[in-house]
Design a protein that fits this description.
The complex is a heterodimer of chains A (360) and B (758).
Chain A lengths: L2 H15 L3 H12 L4 H8 L5 H40 L18 H15 L3 E2 L5 E3 H4 L10 H5 L16 E3 L5 H9 L4 E10 L10 E11 L4 H16 L6 E8 L2 E14 L2 E4 L4 E11 L1 H6 L8 E8 H9 L12 H7 L16
Parallel strand pairs in A: 1-4
Antiparallel strand pairs in A: 2-3, 4-5, 5-10, 6-7, 7-8, 7-9, 9-10
Helix pairs in contact in A: 1-4, 2-4, 3-4, 5-11
Chain B lengths: L1 E3 H7 E2 L4 H10 L3 E6 L1 H4 L3 E11 L7 E6 L6 E5 L9 E5 L15 E3 L2 E3 L2 E2 L27 H4 L6 E5 L10 H10 L4 E2 L17 E3 L7 E8 L8 H9 L7 H13 L4 E4 L7 E5 L5 E3 L5 E3 L5 E4 L4 E4 L3 E2 L12 E7 L2 H11 L4 H8 L6 H16 L2 E2 L3 E4 L7 E2 L5 E2 L10 H12 L22 H15 L3 E2 L5 E2 L1 H6 L17 E2 L4 H13 L4 E11 L4 E14 L9 E2 L2 H14 L8 E3 L6 E11 L3 E9 L1 H6 L6 E6 L25 E10 L4 H10 L5 E10 L8 E10 L8 H17 L3 E2 L2
Parallel strand pairs in B: 13-16, 27-30
Antiparallel strand pairs in B: 1-11, 2-12, 3-11, 4-5, 4-7, 5-6, 7-10, 8-9, 14-22, 14-23, 14-24, 15-22, 16-19, 17-18, 19-20, 20-21, 25-26, 28-29, 30-31, 31-32, 31-36, 33-34, 34-35, 35-36, 37-39, 37-40, 38-39
Helix pairs in contact in B: 1-5, 6-7, 7-10, 8-9, 12-15
The chains are: A alpha+beta (360), B alpha+beta (758).
């Protein structure tokens, strides 16, 4: 074995034996430092004759490369061992609880209103709004409910004192969203397709009635609109809302002063695990009031009822929410109970869309 | 309106079942609200005979009976009724039957040590009457073992229908039968009206001095009647209709009203004095009505009066003084036509409802005065005897009936207030032909994909709502009305209800906070540790209703934890963070907003602020709630609140969808830190704003990252550390340039009263 081969063996053995970075560095200095054995050999190349250098050069350079590689490999191995050792001391108990962010919710009434806006947008209905503090002309008279009409007694109306009257009209809290019909017809040219959701008020309070609740009104005014259009619109809307094709409607003649003929709409339900589920016809629940807009109402809004006809419908938003999502106490809607909101409320990202489905 | 099936069938010949009747009623717009069969309550009760009766060994007042209920297997029953005896035939409730009066389910039991199987029942226990004195005694030949419901003919369902205001014709059972017959359910059998000639002239003068309120007043006297209980068949029909039996005379008038929709009144003639007149009341006149209450009258109301005073609030309720009693022997009958508007106004003014009012204000059939009087007279003579006088007819009822001309022009009678035009005729046809036969027709659809419909305000509301929910807030919906005290504490409410449902729901809210605070308090009372509520709704000001977002944070911001230690509390900066985030969601450039004071008296004066776009337009108020306000809502600890006035956010100008081009700077920004000593009264925001404005070409961001007071900082001062980001444009800054910018920053700061820390 040549001297160089012996030296290489010695150095590689020393590298192998080095068990700390410092020891390894000492080996490196011994071999590759200024005074190192390999460095000395490299320097000796300068004094050699060209023939010698040609023979010894590759051998010495091979030695340097082997040593360099050996040190680098050992260094990586040592560093890796040290890292592993450190990581072993940095263990976290990953079963410990992570910080908890609060979960926010959207109220079911808001969610259902968004769902309705989405469905009716597809049918070409815009969303209209009106004041909740109304005058008795918009709430009653223009809707063909004169002062002495018994229907005024059916609406348990909240009134403001006489001195709050505006333009000689008594002020009240709207008992339904129907005044928005009047406001729309008097402010915009037909054809009209709107829905009008919002708060309404009646002086009534028990398990199924609260003095404030939410309604949504629909109005179509156009030429040649008839009862068949009304029926289709309600069927289409309810099927889309409940996302069921087996929604069955039952129309019953009824009476509202502002529509003629007037129709009450029941929707069929079936009983699943003791709860009423919309669809089928095991039983019937009243969900909507509707009818063809009364000639007198169209006239009161300054339109010619011989040219313009239409239909209107109204329903309770809270009630629709209850039927779809299964709440059974209306009063809880207005209690702000955190537990109820967490249970029945909706995720912020449950935005109703036609492509994703309006229900959540 | 309630009526029994047997009563309906008195006027309607039909084989229809109760279900078919109900379906047909619903179909023609007479909504069935309920069906109840009294026989259902009597299931498990049978006719039974007491075989033996012996004293109870342990109790003086009890007897031990053996009872044969028809199955040939006599049972031992302990009974406390004094009239229980061997041989008595009565009504026996078997094991498992439910006692109607108290809902108790009968079961085998031991009474004072003696076994008892079932119960012999009293009238009261079966809800057949008020008699508590002993058990029912049936005739001795009553068939033992027969179901009592069958024996008592109780299998007669009662139907409850809702009558809409336009259907005055269906305010009586006969009218409902007529409508069902028209819909094809059977044959209408109208009641036969007897002809009653009076035997002598009516002794009392009758007239109407108020033809506007009472166009017609018919009447007659019947002498020699004997009042007492009305016959069983009449009592049964009235009871099914929910009308308590009072006396034969009163029951007869009620029967006419419920059968024919025709209210009438019977006066005790002995209590009347002189002519009986329909007239306007005098202002201040009083009358005590049959309900025992005294009502003040006005000249807007029609009354029936004699020379002594008012006896009847016309068409609404009779007077106590002249009502019939057991001693009544002579009666004056009144059948009048009252103008619906007058009845409605009088009823509204007195807040008095009655069965008569609900019929008169819908409008009764004016053609039915003579017939109604004849039917009533007949009923009274049949049940109470007596001798009727001739009829006096004062005034004339309004014109009757439709008139159809040869060209099909129809003249509508004035009293048919529900008929306004051809649409009514169509309605009648649709009703009878059936809505089921109307064919669904799609609304014409606009070409292409549906257009967006939300207004800018609606889009803004939706964004704020979902941003708030995404930030961990829960949306509540609170009442729009508040107690006066709460409204006053939040700026005062203009809109105060005249007839609130309670004093707690009186004033339309001027702020969303009271409702949220009450909700927070309820949650805290239920043991919630953390409350994050928001509401989007209107606040009601004098001139308009304004869209607002309210926020309340209470309790723990984060619970105690292994990592953070003690629970974290909310502070005023949490309110600021929510407000800024939601304003940003609403599209407001929040960098340019001014933080100013005057958040309102309900906030902590030192921990609240307003955010304004320009000095006047307040977009939001927020901060720590004033401790006194929190206390008024029974809330402990620090309460954080905010209101965002969504109506104050200016509408965005439509700029299309195109965004400005993306031009990242070529060179990296550099940052420089500055520490200043400032008086602790200086608003840090003012300092930051001044620095940001001092070199707009170079300074792109200024951020305060440390605030310190205490050791090393003189009393009354604080140290503020600020990071300034500088953006070079085409070449890197030289040292001179950087120094010049730094000098500008320091000079600007010093104008605010800040000195650079050495």
């Amino acid at each position: 074995m040549s001297d160089i081969a012996t030296l290489q063996n010695q150095i590689l053995t020393a590298i192998d034996a080095a068990d700390t970075p410092d020891a390894l560095e000492a080996v490196r200095i011994d071999a590759l430092g200024k005074q190192g054995s390999v460095s000395a050999l490299l320097k000796s190349l300068g004094q050699m004759s060209p023939e010698e250098r040609q023979q010894q050069g590759p051998v010495i350079n091979g030695l340097r490369e082997a040593v360099t590689n050996g040190i680098a490999a050992k260094k990586a191995a040592l560093e890796n061992a040290i890292l592993n050792q450190r990581l072993a001391t940095e263990r976290l108990d990953m079963t410990l609880p992570a910080p908890d962010g609060p979960r926010g919710t959207v109220h079911p009434v808001s969610q259902v209103m968004d769902e309705l806006a989405e469905i009716f947008a597809d049918m070409g209905f815009a969303v209209a709004e009106g004041p909740e503090i109304e005058d008795d002309w918009h709430n009653f008279s223009a809707l063909n409910i004169p002062e002495t009409h018994p229907a005024r007694a059916m609406h348990d109306t909240f009134y403001f004192p006489d001195q709050m009257a505006q333009d000689g009209k008594k002020m009240l809290l709207r008992t339904h969203t129907s005044p928005v019909q009047i406001r729309t017809m008097t402010s915009q040219e037909p054809p009209i397709r709107i829905i009008a959701p919002g708060r309404v008020y009646r002086s009534d309070s028990d398990a199924t009635h609260t003095p404030m609740f939410h309604q949504i009104e629909g109005l179509v005014i156009d030429k040649g609109i008839h009862l068949g259009h009304l029926k289709w619109t309600l069927e289409t809307f309810l099927k889309a809302f409940f996302e069921r094709d087996d929604v069955v409607l039952r129309l019953r003649p009824s009476y509202f002063p502002f529509t003629e003929p007037s129709v009450e709409v029941d929707v069929g339900y079936s009983v699943v695990k003791g709860k009423r589920v919309i669809g089928g016809s095991e039983g019937w629940m009243e969900v909507l009031g509707s009818g063809m807009v009364h000639r007198k109402v169209i006239e009161a809004c300054g339109l010619d009822p011989d040219i313009w006809q239409g239909f209107a419908f109204g329903t309770g938003v809270d009630r629709l929410a209850m039927l779809k999502y299964g709440m059974d106490d209306l009063r809880a809607f207005f209690d702000g109970d955190n537990r109820w909101l967490q249970h029945y409320g909706f995720n912020a990202l449950d935005v109703p869309t036609l492509s994703g489905g309006v229900g959540a | 309106m309630k009526f029994s099936l047997s009563w309906l069938k008195y006027y309607l010949e039909t084989d229809a079942t109760i279900e078919q009747v109900a379906d047909c009623l619903n179909r023609i717009g007479l909504e069935v609200e309920g069906i109840e069969n009294p026989a259902d309550k009597l299931a498990g009760f049978r006719v039974a005979k007491v075989l033996t009766a012996a004293p109870h060994p342990q109790a003086d007042k009890l007897q031990v009976l053996t009872v044969d209920s028809g199955d040939g297997n006599p049972l031992q029953v302990v009974c406390g009724a004094p009239n229980a005896r061997a041989g008595l035939v009565g009504v026996f409730g078997v094991e498992g039957a439910t006692v109607p009066a108290n809902g108790m389910v009968l079961k085998k039991t031991a009474i004072r040590g003696v076994e008892s199987n079932g119960m012999m029942c009293s009238v009261a226990e079966l809800e057949l009457g008020d008699d508590h004195d002993g058990i029912i005694e049936l005739p001795a030949d009553a068939p033992v073992g027969m179901a009592f419901a069958e024996y008592a003919d109780a299998n007669d369902p009662v139907i409850d229908v809702a009558i809409t205001p336009n259907r005055q014709d269906c305010m009586g059972v006969m009218g409902i039968a007529r409508d069902l017959a028209a819909a094809g359910l059977g044959t209408f059998k109208p009641v036969e009206v007897p002809t009653i000639e009076g035997s002598n002239p009516c002794p009392t003068e009758i007239r109407t001095d108020d033809p506007e309120g009472c166009p017609a007043f018919y009447g007659r006297v019947i002498r020699g009647v004997k009042n007492g209980p009305s016959p069983d068949w009449m009592q049964a029909r009235l009871k099914a209709a929910g009308q308590r039996s009072i006396s034969a005379l009163v029951d007869c008038t009620n029967y006419l009203m419920l059968a024919c929709g025709r209210p009438a009144h019977a006066y005790d003639l002995a209590q009347l004095n002189g002519a009986v007149v329909a007239r306007r009341a005098k202002d201040g006149e009083m009358v005590t009505a049959l309900n025992g209450k005294e009502y003040p009258l006005t000249s807007e109301m029609t009354v029936i009066a004699d020379e002594s005073g008012v006896h009847d609030i016309a068409g609404i309720m009779g007077g106590e003084h002249s009502g019939c009693s057991d001693d009544t022997t002579d009666v004056l009958l009144e059948i009048a036509y009252f103008t619906p508007e007058r009845i409605a106004r009088t009823g509204q003014a007195l807040s008095l409802t009655s069965d008569a009012r609900s019929r008169f204000e819908r409008g009764v059939d004016p053609a039915f005065l003579d017939d109604g009087l004849a039917l009533l007279t007949d009923l009274i003579v049949q049940t109470c005897g007596g001798e009727p006088s001739e009829v006096i007819r004062a005034g004339h009822p309004p014109l009757l009936g439709f008139e159809v001309a040869a060209d099909w022009t129809v003249t509508v009678p004035t009293w048919r207030r529900d008929v306004d035009g051809w649409a009514d005729l169509v309605e009648e046809v649709v009703r009878i032909v059936g809505l089921d036969n109307v064919v669904s027709t799609p609304l014409p659809r606009a070409d292409g994909v549906a257009k967006p419909t939300a207004t800018p305000q609606q889009s803004l509301e939706r964004k704020v709502r979902r941003a708030a929910a995404a930030r961990g807030l829960n949306e509540a919906i609170n009442w729009s009305f508040l107690p006066q005290k709460e409204a006053d504490a939040f700026g005062g409410g203009i809109w105060s209800l005249d007839n609130p449902i309670s004093e707690d729901m009186k004033v339309m809210r001027p702020s969303l906070l009271p409702g949220l605070l009450s909700a927070a308090q309820r949650n805290m009372d239920r043991g919630a540790s953390s409350v994050r509520l928001f509401e989007i709704g209107r606040r009601y000001l004098a001139d308009s209703e304004r869209l607002t977002c309210g926020i309340v944070l209470a309790g723990e911001k984060a619970p105690r934890s292994w990592a953070m230690g003690k629970a974290a509390k909310f502070d005023a900066y949490d309110a600021k963070a929510e407000v800024l985030a939601l304003l940003a969601a609403a599209g407001v450039a929040t960098d340019g907003l001014m933080v100013m004071g005057e958040a309102g008296d309900h906030y902590h004066p030192g921990q609240s602020a307003t955010l304004r776009m320009g000095p006047k337009n307040i977009l939001a108020a927020f901060g720590t709630l004033h401790p006194a306000t929190a206390k008024a809502f029974d809330l402990d600890g620090t309460i954080i609140a905010a209101e965002i006035f969504l109506d104050a956010i200016p509408a965005k100008k439509g700029a299309g969808f195109m965004r400005p081009a993306f031009t990242p700077p070529a060179l990296q920004a550099v940052t420089r830190d500055f520490a200043f000593l400032v008086p602790d009264t200086l608003a840090a925001g003012d300092l930051v704003r001044a620095i940001r404005g001092c070199d707009k070409d170079n300074i792109v961001a200024v951020r305060l990252f440390d605030r310190f007071a205490g050791q090393g900082v003189p009393e009354g001062q604080v140290s503020l550390a600020i990071e300034v980001a500088l953006q070079p444009s085409d070449k890197s800054y030289t040292d001179e340039e950087l120094k010049a910018i730094s000098d500008r920053v320091v000079t600007t700061a010093s104008k605010q009263g800040a000195t650079l820390r050495g």
